[in-house]
Design goal:
221 residues; alpha+beta; six-stranded antiparallel beta sheet; 6 helices; 11 strands
């Protein structure tokens, strides 16, 4: 799996931007609701550490900054919620209830822990903050995947700070790369992981709708 340093070096080398985020019509493909396992993040407690990163990204027209209430770490995207699934990326509410029950079993023996957020980094479609925790988030993701029979997604876990929304293949300007590089070593702060949630995202309501909580799964039962 590619690490944070490799992701940054590849972006610096290729400088390709994409239209990232859930508003991409090609990704949505006509669906109305997406479901995910997420770790919620109380962004107001981290506002002082996040502010310089938001300030340096805000001037770029292709940057769409996440509001505080939208901040979370996605453990696993589950697919699109539909009444009658027909494709591999669709699931019914009954399947979501089954995944909730299995995830509760998987996470019963995990204690709460802290995650340190630090360092601005970039995918072609998103600017993010790295999550450093000694591997606990990865262990949680592995446990949920194993118990629920889900395929593990690739890439290190992270806190998305903004979508980058440019035509696919657009070259990132030099001043954007330089702006990110200034904050490659920047401490944002720590937060406590006490639960995992299954959330639903309404893809047609607004650019940043409130996440609907389908289930709250506390660590340690």
């Amino acid at each position: 799996m590619e690490g944070y340093a490799e992701i940054w070096e590849r972006f610096k080398r290729e400088r390709h931007l994409e239209f990232g985020g859930h508003t991409d019509p090609e990704w949505r493909d006509g669906h109305a609701l997406s479901a995910s396992f997420v770790v919620p993040v109380e962004a107001p407690r981290l506002r002082e550490g996040l502010k310089p990163l938001r300030d340096v990204l805000r001037p770029f027209p292709f940057v769409s900054l996440h509001p505080d209430y939208f901040m979370h770490l996605t453990l696993l995207p589950l697919g699109f919620l539909v009444p009658k699934p027909r494709a591999g990326n669709e699931l019914a509410r009954e399947r979501l209830e089954e995944l909730e029950a299995r995830a509760r079993e998987a996470l019963r023996n995990f204690p709460p822990f802290e995650v340190e957020l630090a360092n601005l980094n970039v995918f072609p479609g998103a600017a993010f903050v790295e999550a450093h925790d000694g591997g606990m988030l990865e262990k949680i993701r592995d446990a949920v995947c194993g118990r629920c029979g889900l395929e593990k997604t690739s890439g290190p876990l992270h806190l998305t700070l903004a979508y980058l929304q440019a035509a696919n293949g657009t070259l990132a300007p030099d001043n954007f790369v330089a702006a990110v590089e200034r904050y490659r070593d920047w401490p944002v702060g720590k937060f406590s992981v006490e639960r995992v949630e299954i959330t639903l995202l309404n893809l047609g309501s607004s650019t940043y709708p409130e996440l609907e909580t389908f289930a709250r799964i506390p660590l340690g039962g």
